[in-house]
Amino acid sequence: GAKCRVFCITIAENTLKAVKERITLAREEIGLFEIRVDALSSEELTEEGLSSLLKEAPKLIFTFRSPLEGGLKDTPKSLREKWLTWALSQPFFLIDFEWQEFKELFKGAEPSLFEKVLFSYHNFSGTLSKAEFLKLLEEMAELGAKWIKLVPTPFTRAQAIELLELISLAKEKFGLIPVI
Prior knowledge:
6-stranded parallel beta sheet, globular
């Protein structure tokens, strides 16, 4: 049969050593890894340690979530912002920013900053209406978003089908904005 390729896998480990081991196990088959920095112990959060991950795989997504957006521990917002801002200056493939935090932190930033930003929006209690979905995408597009990840939670088959239709509509309406 046809071989299925996984686009991206998420790695959420407590130590850098464990992250590197997971990358090594999957590197032959996987081209993109999301590193959940919010899973690492505070002792592991060093520039040298995080930079060392860049040698492990050509494409890494740097993610440091808040608990409200699915983060794995309660890290102060100032510390998350410090590391996310640092990651922007490093050769990570993408830096995953929560939409609201990015808007607050980088209000009026140069659009060139967005080349490496994956804008994330999570809704663990349901889905957006069609109007809300399009309004959110329009806001992101106006800011210059290149990469978008929307994570709604459909509870019915009808909601899931509506989401698939909204993805097509977003591609038509906003053109080249990838919806992940």
